[in-house]
Amino acid sequence: MKTTYIEPILDWYHANARDLPWRAPGATPWGVLVSEIMLQQTPVSRVLPVWHAWMARWPTPAALAAEPSGEAVRAWGRLGYPRRALRLHESARAITERHGGEVPSSHEDLLALPGIGAYTAAAVASFAFRRRHAVLDTNVRRVLARLLTGVEYPPKAQTKAEVALAESLLPPDPPTAARWAVAVMELGALVCTARSPRCVDCPVLDQCAWHLNGRPAYDGPPRRGQTYAGTDRQCRGRILAVLREAEGPVEKPALDVVWADPVQRERALDTLVADGLVDPLQDGRYALPS
DNA sequence: TACGCGTGGGT
DNA sequence: TACCCAAGCGT
Q1: Residue A78: nearest nucleotide (C-alpha to C1')
Q2: Across all strands, nucleotide nearest A228 (CA–C1')
Q3: Distance between CA A289 and CA A266 in Å, rounded?
Q4: Strand B nucleotides with an atom less than 7 Å from a protein beta carbon
Q5: Where do the domains of chain A lie, and which CATH numbers do they carry?
Q6: What does the pLDDT look like over A114-160, one tens digit per residue?
Q7: How many angstroms from the chain centroid is the CA of residue A220?
């Protein structure tokens, strides 16, 4: 069976791709890597301004590696999941020390860096170095679930079958495989969205198994709903926000005022310290890590 | 394998 | 209004 959806999706991408700075001709592998870390679980619109500021301040891994980790946490701003900033800083130091300051191009070397898993390693190898990898993120998983499997959503946890399917679809030629990877991801981000998909704009609607099935509703276990209010995560976020916005070290009472429950507050502070996001100074004050 | 980990915009 | 969810990773 000859596949007829590769070409339409490549053509659709050529005509509809967003003009994102990490896709610009002058974008460096470092810029691609920074974007991928920031985009983990965070929308493009919120990443854009932080990415620009970050790249202006730290245009190379060595530039970031020369700074204290706390500066990375501060510059991370309100992107969320600030441990990513810490790991990106660690990666910058590893790249500077182990790779001569150049972002490695192989999936294996990328995977060895902190904060880089299977998806991000494949994405950087593909987007920055035009290597041939299955780039399987939440967008691509959803597109393949609909187009080929005929269901509205993929399973909660990624399966080996999904990986095998994605790899089987890769065009043999690496540059074309790289174009395919970014194109199918973009289709998921702009058209084949989680809610209210824009099927009228889909270049492969006539081949979509889910559409041909009559777009049956998702039939499976409830998809996780994450509560946030009142959690340790919210408490950690408030504590760290105080430190980000402070010029220097702060007294303990300045942290205490952000959360009423002292037990939860102390627990959150302890885990922030354990994570390396907060530095307890000898004089009793607290600061972003140096 | 399932869970913890931030934040804010869309529906 | 309350969810839902957004280019995941590490444990």
Answers
A1: B7
A2: B6
A3: 18
A4: 1-2, 4-9, 11
A5: 6-129 (1.10.340.30), 138-212 (1.10.1670.10), 232-287 (1.10.10)
A6: 999 999 999 999 999 999 999 999 999 999 999 999 999 999 999 99
A7: 26
